[in-house]
Write a structure and sequence with these properties.
About 10% of the residues are buried. The protein is mainly alpha-helical and about 110 residues long. Helix 2 crosses helix 3 and helix 3 crosses helix 4. About 65% of the residues lie in helices and about 0% in strands. It has 2 domains: about 25 residues; about 70 residues, Homeodomain-like (Arc Repressor Mutant, subunit A).
């Protein structure tokens, strides 16, 4: 029987194929392509590098050289999610990945 990680990978590849075949790339489980707005790309890079720290809208706005309100509106228009929802989603994705590829206890992953 294949390893659980291999089955998860196969499931993900199948879902990716079906989403693309149906013309619904937004439904794909694979990470979306990077935004064309360089400021939003900087915010996403910063979130990826610092997802384990407490992040604020003001901090992320400073990274993009925007006001907090402008960042909030621009990010949601570009990415399709509010900024802090994106941060939470990325944290959950990291936790899911760690659960499938490591033997760490759930409690330890929760503190990562």
């Amino acid at each position: 029987m294949p390893a659980p990680a291999a089955l998860l990978y196969l499931d993900g590849a199948t879902l990716q194929f079906l989403a693309l075949a149906a013309g619904q790339a937004a439904m794909s489980p694979v990470e979306p392509e990077r935004p064309r707005d360089a400021r939003m790309a900087q915010v996403i890079d910063y979130v990826e590098a610092h997802y384990d720290k407490a992040l604020t809208i003001a901090e992320l706005a400073a990274i993009a050289c925007l006001s907090p309100g402008h960042l909030t509106r621009t990010f949601e228009a570009t990415i399709g999610l509010p900024v802090l929802s994106h941060v939470t989603e990325r944290r959950c994705e990291r936790a899911k990945k760690m659960l499938t590829i490591t033997q760490l206890p759930v409690a330890e992953i929760a503190y990562c």
